Amino acid sequence: MDFARPHVIKQSIVSTSNIRVVNTEEPHASEDHQKAVTSREELDQMVVRASNQATRDLILASYPVELRDDRFADASLYTERSIPRKETIQVGDLVVIMESFDRLTFAYIEEKGMYSNRHGHFSHKDFIGKPFGSKVRSRNNQGYGFCFLLKPTPELWARSLTHRTQIVHELDQSQIIFQLYLRPNMTVVESGTGSGAMSHAILRTIAPHGKLHTYEFNKMRADTARNEFEKNGVSHLVTVHHRDVCAKIEAEAGFDLPPCSVDAVFLDLPEPWHAVPHAAKVLKPNARIASYSPCVEQTQRTVEAMKKAGFHSMKTMEYRLQEHYVDEIEYKSPPKAKRPKFEAHDNEARIMSASAAGSASGNGEQSDDLSDEVETGDDGELAGDEMGEGNEIKAKMVVARPFASMRGHSAFLTFATAGLHA
Ligand SMILES: C[S@@+](CC[C@H](N)C(=O)[O-])C[C@H]1O[C@@H](n2cnc3c(N)ncnc32)[C@H](O)[C@@H]1O
């Protein structure tokens, strides 16, 4: 690539990540160079090799020799970043389908697949090759039905997945990840797996070399989650354990992992206090734990168990989401004339003046004040012109309005830090 010198473009190839290689007709351009890049795939591989080389030269070279681990210079693990193939939809891809503002579903794309909803029938063929974010029209209903094809993220997945259990939603997910101090390459334990909503959020954070051990005692849920992780392309980051972490028999309970080997534990269990002592064993000193419980009684028992197991810095939180939408609205300026006299006001005025007249002082001032409030004709009505009808000015204004409902309460979240092991 050389943008400084003028050249005659003979052939140019663009990588998936929009890096362009231009083959020139310069006489000194070696044959090797001319042959070097003939396809997008080849260029993609070159981008990966170049990224690896750059990581080795610029980053790893400054590390002490014993820390120069080539595993950390493998851009093929970050294909989303170095070769963002997923910008267009391919067979086998998971696509989140936005049917309406508050209805999201999903589909795995198949060559001959069909997706149907109340808006119509959509052929997967119409999805393949389209960039994520595209709007597609139904094949029936004269194409009136449409939906949007979104690229999956843990947040969208939580809103679209098939619920097999209660799940942890985006707001709580974000706080759990934040309060557990999760970072790439960490080892994390989770129980139970449930519908795998929280697992996906953890996996994105601990990629590319991290490991999630997720424990679920319901065999069907464990198998379904394992299968889903595989289909969603994250199975290399997660091991699903079919195990009762609160089992009464000590040897069968807890997490079958070496002591002090885990960076964070997340519990979403009906009786988390039974799992807390096991978590304390596998957590590294000063590592973090979070427990998610819908009832405050569960939280109280969990905090007691945490104290007993040597955890400190306990904090219980409840998060609520108040969304606002910012929009331009059209409004009519209010009428300039005074407001008309309503029956209700008359009655009120009458009652008040009667009570004023009946009182000891009885000077009727109140009734006078009220009747002063409106200027009316004999019949007590305001004429249209006086009300300003027809003279209203329509204006536009950008406003921020809160949504009528505030989402919550989903659960209490208790966070704590593991003590130092004796
Ligand atoms: C509320 S769900 C977890 C949802 C999950 N956090 C999500 O976001 O999708 C709780 C799960 O814990 C599992 N579970 C309950 N007690 C368990 C135990 N003692 N050991 C392992 N799993 C357990 C249940 O089968 C259920 O699937």
From TrEMBL:
GO terms for molecular function: tRNA (adenine(58)-N1)-methyltransferase activity. Gene3D superfamilies: 3.10.330.20, Vaccinia Virus protein VP39. Its EC number is 2.1.1.220. It is an enzyme of class 2 (transferase). It is found in: Nucleus. PROSITE patterns: SAM_TRM61 (PS51620). Keywords: Methyltransferase, Nucleus, S-adenosyl-L-methionine, Transferase, tRNA processing. Residues 366-389 have a biased composition (Acidic residues). One of its GO terms (biological process) is tRNA methylation. Its main location: nucleus. One of its GO terms (cellular component) is tRNA (m1A) methyltransferase complex. Signal peptide: none annotated. The keyword Nucleotide-binding does not apply. Residues 355-389 are annotated as: Disordered. Residues 145-417 form the tRNA (adenine(58)-N(1))-methyltransferase catalytic subunit TRM61 C-terminal domain. InterPro entries: SAM-dependent_MTases_sf, TRM61_C, tRNA_MeTrfase_Gcd14. This is tRNA (adenine(58)-N(1))-methyltransferase.
